Amino acid sequence: MFTMENRWVNKDGKIGIGALVWLFIIAVLVYLGIKFVPPYFTYYMFKGEVDGEAKTAHVYSDQDIIKHIMDRAMESELPIEEKDIVLERRESEIEVSITYDIVVNFFDRYFKTLHLEIHTTQPITAKHYT
Question: Bridge partners of 102?
Answer without folding.
Answer: 114
